[in-house]
What we know:
Layout lengths: L14 H7 L2 H4 L3 H17 L5 H20 L11 H13 L12 H37 L4 E6 L2 E7 H26 L18 H7 L9 H6 L2 H27 L7 E2 L18 H24 L13 H25 L1 E2 L1 H10 L4 H10 L4 H18 L8 H7 L7 H4 L2 H6 L9 H17 L5
Antiparallel strand pairs: 1-2, 3-4
Amino acid sequence: MAQLWGGRFTKETDQLVYNFNASISFDKKFYKQDMKGSMAHVRMLAKQGILSDEERDIILDGIEGILKDVESGKLEISDEYEDIHSFVEATLIDRIGDPGKKLHTGRSRNDQVALDMKLYTRDEICGIDGLVRELLTVLQRLMEEHTRTIMPGFTHLQKAQPITLAHHLGAYFEMFKRDRGRLADIYERMNYCPLGSGALAGTTYPLDREYTAELLAFAGPTLNSMDSVSDRDYLIELLSALSTIMMHLSRFSEEIIIWNTNEYRFVEIDDAYSTGSSIMPQKKNPDIAELVRGKTGRVYGALISLLTTMKGLPLAYNKDMQEDKELTFDAFDTVKGCLALFTGMLDTMKFNKSQMAASARNGFTNATDAADYLVNHGVPFRDAHGVIGRLVLYCIEQGKAIEELSLEELKEISPVFEEDIYEAVSMDTCVNKRLTLGAPGEKAMEQVICKNREWLESHGSLG
């Protein structure tokens, strides 16, 4: 078909070149945003007297008809068009005639695609933020339920000190809370309207860019037309934020995978979120957690790809920038899918409290508290550290936990031990005497849970 820009050219574009150049196969994804932007542009043109009210109404009715037909399936967005802008404009001209030819007055495809991508991205940020909020809500519920569920805390994948499941999950609450903060920052920073920037140098038409921005719920118009059409910072920022979300999901998935093993048996994943083996009937595999972990690299790849695309581009618009869409759309879909499935998996997961507590006891996670006991009875810390090291070695040889030793056995290691050592190294004592804000003690956790609840209530949806 003839191109909207074809006047300068004397022969048709080679079909292979045309296919390589075209973006309709992926930018049709934001057909709604393209038509929404066009309708705002037409209203502004009429307000400024560039279009008559009659022309405005004819064009608006035509675009609304196209949108309705696309939504109903009556009209297909055909790949015979180069991009979504060409499809909308050509279809409009076919339907309403000459008034449709005025749709593009005062704008370029450069500022049009910049607008469409911002509108689409803005909607996606709101959707992703909502999914992170749902995950935080599930985490909050689990934290409330498990302030007394004792488990081992780890460093270097070695059992370190006893904590609670609420405390462990609270670490992820903080991560995903920061993720929401990043999304909100990006939304605010990107929320300026590029329409009216033209190809790169604005236009001679008396546009009211503030009015267009207001119609489209932007904070205002962008202030440099060259930057407006060549800015992809907001996408790079967003892909970085999405990569961080995926990194957090992947860390959490890794722990769930470990907790699901026969060696740990901390959790049981619901049947709806796991699969079996085709030859080993005993298997119950953590497929969703593994897929989330695997798909993280896919989102990282989108970030690195766009950074690489943008690193050598002079001002202003370059066709390279068309590469922002496919990988960004894929990242959006990947993150949304992972968040939704991970939240469902976590929400239906069962936690084996007795196994977690036994693991904490059998891993000498109370060794630090035993050393503190000696320090509180006058033993220098360095000496106490050595005593407890010998005590742990003895326990390993005997196949016992510290609290399972008799007082006589304890005194053979150090005469300082008395009957109150058993209370001092009990799991409940080890956890609940840690009461500083941010620690795993029950009262400290209740403070944090309350703060989390207030934060969720005060941070509703974006947009």
